[in-house]
Design brief:
Length: about 525
């Protein structure tokens, strides 16, 4: 049986996109200025809170936001993604600052940025295809759990003990059973605003929840004289610092460089992919340019005292919803950050730390949202186990160990499913080019572990043709491949092509469209 994909139903080609660069600025400035203003209101409290949670000076988050919007954005390969410091990097930066000190952590950021630039020129943007989606979600969930475990202390008026291992959990009860009441009221108010405000409809899209949480928390703190509050250390101009490169070749520094590059690059590329799906004009990001742009941004930001940056999905989604058309909305958000912090640093120093902690508690919860675990369960028990094992290994040990554990377990599962060692990292496929029709014949196993060459073939497929994906000789397809094949079908349709899948009827389907598909066992 041959199954037509949803591609044929989409049709119509890509909408004509807005102009880019200076022509785009002239054409779209009114809408992009408004979008930039809205994103600035979202980003400002997050920049401050993420810096504090990372163990860095608060102004370091603002510096990163400014550089991300006004510089990195201009070199990036995406159009409406928003760059800046993000919750996904908190664990990495906090670890580097704790072990190396802030100025040596800045040196790590510079080195990581240079490596990202090199990776971009080496055209490694497709390497995200190697990581199982369940493991990536598990990594983000583990980061979210760590953020919540640290910020709960600050939200109730205590210092973050920055515990490790099982102590990250055992340190929580003493703090929440002995709260500092004025600060705890502020933290609770911030959490409630973050949860309830988005449910108010149109007003919530005009005035972002993080801004409201900060305002409400600040008013409560002023009434109750709640402490501690934000300290910008002299404002923007006093916040610039230079990196200390003296320990850059030490083993700890090398470890953090690897983690910076890995997490910042992976999150940015996955975010760019996700935002491409939301882009009304269906533009495709250049993933290699994304790496170059983020590398330039990270090298410059870390070189002057700022945090590392990534492409951030929540702010990017808000940017699209606010009507952004080009990269200039990102630029204006960075410009507004610069002007506000330069002109009114005293206003920011009224913000109580508990309010920022309350905001980050909700951000951490969204990274580890129960719905994501349920989604993994719906796909299949193996993906659920990979996600939950990765998440809690990240929480209780180390991010690199957690991700490595998930990948190794995924490889073992592929071998258990009958994948040969030769097929483990090399797909068995043949491309037959028949002019207007192209057939890609697959054999053996298709999984995250051998998907990178498959992705290269799909990315380089001539547009506007009929592509047949022949799975008749395949005995195993994992969820990562199924989801990315689905994305390819939709994207290919926007260039007036069509994709047909053949031979899947011989594989046993699961309960979800992306569930693992396997050949039925033969009984004798």
């Amino acid at each position: 049986m041959t199954t037509d994909s949803i591609v044929d139903a989409q049709g119509g080609g890509r909408p004509t996109p807005p102009k880019d660069w200076l022509a785009g600025l002239k054409e779209n400035a009114p809408t992009d200025v408004v979008s930039g203003l809205i994103i600035f209101l979202i980003a400002l409290p997050l920049c401050l809170g993420i810096a504090l949670a990372s163990g860095a000076p608060p102004i370091a988050g603002v510096i990163a936001g400014i550089v991300a919007g006004t510089l990195a954005n201009l070199f990036s390969g995406s159009y409406v993604t928003i760059n800046g410091p993000a919750a996904g990097m908190i664990v990495i930066v906090a670890g580097a600052v704790t072990e190396l000190g802030f100025r040596q952590a800045l040196a790590v950021g510079v080195a990581a940025g240079v490596i990202q630039i090199a990776l971009g020129f080496a055209k490694t943007g497709k390497l995200t295809g190697f990581f199982p989606i369940s493991v990536v979600h598990g990594m983000l969930a583990g980061i979210g759990l760590i953020i919540m475990a640290g910020q709960i202390h600050i939200a109730v008026g205590h210092a973050n003990p920055r515990a490790h291992g099982f102590h990250i959990l055992t340190e929580i009860p003493p703090s929440i059973t002995d709260p500092v009441v004025p600060a705890a009221i502020v933290g609770l108010a911030a959490v409630l605003v973050m949860v309830l405000w988005p449910r108010l409809g149109k007003v919530a899209t005009m005035i972002p929840a993080p801004l409201v949480a900060v305002i409400v928390g600040t008013v409560i703190a002023l009434i109750n004289d709640a402490e501690p509050r934000l300290d910008l250390g002299g404002g923007l101009l006093e916040g610039f610092q230079t990196p200390d490169f003296s320990g850059l070749m030490s083993a700890p520094a090398v470890k953090w460089i690897v983690l910076y590059v890995f997490v910042a690059s992976l999150e940015s590329l996955l975010t760019a992919e996700a935002v491409d799906k939301l882009d009304p004009w269906k533009r495709r990001s250049n993933m290699n340019k994304e790496l170059i742009g983020k590398g330039i941004g990270n090298a410059v930001s870390s070189g002057i005292g700022g945090l590392p940056m990534i492409a951030e999905v929540v702010r990017s989604k808000a940017n699209i919803m606010a009507g952004a058309r080009t990269r200039w909305s990102n630029f204006f958000h960075g410009l507004f950050l610069f002007l506000f912090v330069l002109a009114l640093p005293g206003v920011l120093e009224l913000i109580p730390l508990a309010a920022l902690a309350g905001i980050l508690l909700v951000v951490g919860f969204k990274l580890a949202h129960p719905a994501d675990f349920k989604h993994a369960w719906d796909i299949g028990p193996v993906d659920f186990l990979l996600m939950i094992i990765t998440a809690f290994t990240v929480l209780l040990t180390d991010l690199l160990i957690g991700v490595a554990t998930g990948i190794v377990l995924g490889l073992l599962h592929a071998l258990f499913r009958g994948t040969t060692l030769r097929n483990l990292f090399r797909p068995r496929m043949k491309v037959v080019d028949g002019g207007d029709q192209v057939t890609v014949v697959f054999r053996g196993a298709l999984g995250f572990h051998n998907f990178i060459p498959v992705r290269s073939v799909l990315d380089n497929m001539p547009r506007g043709r009929t592509v047949t994906l022949d799975f008749s000789g395949v005995h195993y397809i994992d969820p990562t491949v199924l989801e990315r094949m689905h994305d390819f079908e939709i994207d290919y349709a926007y260039d007036d092509g069509s994709v047909r899948r053949f031979g899947e009827e011989s594989l046993q389907p699961g309960p979800h469209p992306f569930s693992t598909r396997t050949a039925p066992k033969v009984t004798v």
